[in-house]
Amino acid sequence: IMYKIKFKDLILISNKKRISSNFETIFFFYGIGNSSDDFNFLIKKLNKKYQLLIPELPGHNNDKFNSKFSLINYAKSIVLLILKNNLRNLVFFSHSVGGIIPILIAKQIKQKKKIKKFFSYEGNLSEFDTDTITKKTLNYKMNEFDNKFKNLIRICEESNKRAIRLWSDSLKKTSPKAFYNISKDTIMLSKTKILLQFFRVFFKRKLYLFGSDSLLSFSKFVFGSERLIIKNTGHFAFYDDKTGFLNIFLKLIYNCK
């Protein structure tokens, strides 16, 4: 069973009806153009002693988008939720642009004891990570982007890669304005080098995951983190191999001491 929880301007999908400090809490932050629907299979299989919270990115999964949105304010809302519900020993699992959010949260909480571990699957840590799509988005003005976004969806629908075709289904539920503004924020934050520095220094217990088909130019020393290669996948392992991704996710969570 899945539940929709509202807190201030946040919508979260969870395996629990109410947020409680009695359970071990996992936050899952997905990337730009995805939706919580892509990760329902995690909620269905996770042991009941865990509380999984998947915050919906504004303007994603047919959610309305407020043009005053910023990733920093979004992270502030999540910090308020964490503090109000007295959540501790948090596990963060993120994908792509979603990898920025735990860093913004940690910068505000600044209490290491609250955060148990951070699993970042190809999380956005540097300007290099914005080369694929977010930087290209900003080549256009906002008023030009509506048509370009429709074009992007069409290209993804016709892709010879199954994962990209599946991504197009979530893109159709994403507001072009949200996609554009989040891309803008991502580039701004990635240029500062703060993300990578904070990832390296603040999170004592972390793991960086990446698909074997993804081209990463970093050495493992840059991350200051152990790395786990997900075999026979790229940037979208949860599309490429749902069962394999589920098994890795559950193993990491259940073995997280």
Description of the molecule:
This protein is 41% helix and 18% strand. It contains eleven helices and eight strands. It has an eight-stranded mixed sheet, with helices on both faces. Strand 1 (3-7) and strand 2 form a beta hairpin. The protein is globular, with a radius of gyration of 17 Å. The mean pLDDT is 90.
What's this entry about, in short?
With 257 residues, the chain is of the alpha/beta class.
Give the topology, please.
Blueprint lengths: L2 E5 L2 E5 L9 E6 L10 H6 L4 E6 L15 H14 L5 E6 L4 H10 L5 E7 L12 H4 L4 H16 L4 H10 L4 H16 L2 H8 L4 E6 L8 H4 L2 E5 L6 H4 L1 H13 L3
Low-confidence stretches: none
Helix and strand pattern: EEEHEHEHEHHHHHEHEHH
Structural class: alpha/beta
Average of the residue pLDDT scores = 90
How many beta-strand segments? Answer: 8
Question: What is the C-alpha radius of gyration, as a whole number of Å?
Answer: 17 Å
* Helical residue percent band: 40-55%
**End-to-end distance:** 27 Å
Q: Spatial order of the strands in the main sheet?
A: 1-2-4-3-5-6-7-8
Could you list some keywords that capture this structure?
257 residues; alpha/beta; eight-stranded mixed sheet; 8 strands
